[in-house]
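Memo to structure team: turn this sequence into structure tokens by end of day. - J.P.
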Amino acid sequence: MRGVLGSIRGKKVMRGVLGSIRGKKVMRGVLGSIRGKKVMRGVLGCIRGKKVMRGVLGSIRGKRVMRGVLGSIRGKKVMRGVLESIRGKKVMRGVLGSIRGKRVMRGVLGSIRGKK
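Reply from structure team:
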């Protein structure tokens, strides 16, 4: 039955269970693929049904997001897209208004005689 044998790091195994990844032989069971590239299944995470490398995953309020899009504001994690800065402080995008061309927190805006 020599035909059914392959070897992996000196151990003999059934040839059918061998796969290869970047020229290294590995057991086929541990292979996954991401965007057509073969990777070890252990490093795969999944985010909204898309496969990504586990290292790039972060989480925000229990939702998984790509780590690159995370920023933080006063120690809380938020999506980087919603951050703006005002006088060097980071604030959420929705809370900024402007008065005479200067940016201020929207909460401090009122109007008097129709002027801000």
